[in-house]
Amino acid sequence: MKDLSTIQALIFDLDNTLVSSQLDFKLLREIISCPGKVDILDFINEIKSASLMKQAEDLIVSHEMSDALTASFLPGSKSLLAFMAIQKYPVGIVTRNCRQAANTKLKNNAISVDILITREDYPAKPNPEALFAIAQLWGIECQNIMYVGDHFYDVQAANNAGMISCLITHNIDLSFKYSAHLVFNELHELEDALKKS
């Protein structure tokens, strides 16, 4: 296992990493006619008609807000965040969510972090710009920051930024797991590993 003693901060994805999400991306793709292999946010950004782009954006936000109202802590997330607070590690979240939905999820679950970055702030993952910005803000080298997520984009973003990529699989055999530096089934396993480092 990678040496975790050099870790000075953690950044998390939000949906299906810290909190639950029931967003139906297949349905959203069908409604806006986004092909299956195309990133949904990239697809919306490429819509030529301003009014159609706004309609697509509003639809996504509407679904995100509905999802935000039912989001709840995933196993291990509350304990891990409490451990990070005790250790005084800086903690951030970088999500592809809109800010309104992300803030709702944080408020409803009483999650407090040092920084929240959404798709309105920087280009969406896997672009690493948001991660670079946080590292610069904190004054911490990228190689001393871990990015934790459940999606290939999370692993890509972390690797693109030169951070330690940590994949949470939720007991699913993900084909891209070998791209991550660390792989855990659940967050409590990550907490145990950090405590041992």
Summarize the structure.
This protein is α/β, with parallel strands linked by helices. It is built from eight helices and six strands.
By CATH, the superfamily of the largest domain comes out as HAD superfamily/HAD-like
DSSP E strands, number: 6
Q: In the residues, how many domains can be counted?
A: 2
CATH class wording of the largest domain? Alpha Beta
Major sheet size, sense and barrel closure: 6 strands, parallel
Mean model confidence by pLDDT: 95
Q: How do the SSEs run, as a string of H and E?
A: EHHHHEHEHEHEEH
CATH topology of the largest domain: Rossmann fold
Spans where pLDDT lies below 50 across 5 or more residues: none
Q: Tell me which CATH architecture of the largest domain applies here.
A: 3-Layer(aba) Sandwich
Distance between the termini: 11 Å
Rg estimate, integer Å = 17 Å
Number of helices: 8
Strand order of the largest sheet: 3-2-1-4-5-6
Structural class based on helices, strands and sheet pairing: alpha/beta
Helical fraction equals 40-55%
Structural shape: globular
What is the beta-strand fraction?
5-15%
Notable features of this structure?
single chain; 197 residues; alpha/beta; 434 Repressor (Amino-terminal Domain); 2 domains; 8 helices; 12% strand
Explain how this protein is built:
By secondary structure, the chain is of the alpha/beta class. It folds into two domains: 9-21 and 72-196, HAD superfamily/HAD-like (Rossmann fold, 3-Layer(aba) Sandwich); 25-68, 434 Repressor (Amino-terminal Domain). The protein has helices at residues 25-32, 40-45, 50-68, 77-87, 99-108, 129-138, 152-161, 187-196; strands at residues 9-12, 91-94, 115-117, 145-149, 164-168, 182-184. A six-stranded parallel β-sheet has the order 3-2-1-4-5-6, with helices on both faces. Helix 3 (50-68) runs parallel beside helix 5 (99-108) and helix 4 packs parallel to helix 8 (187-196). The longest helix is centred in the first third of the chain and has 19 residues, at 50-68. The protein is globular and about 50 Å long.
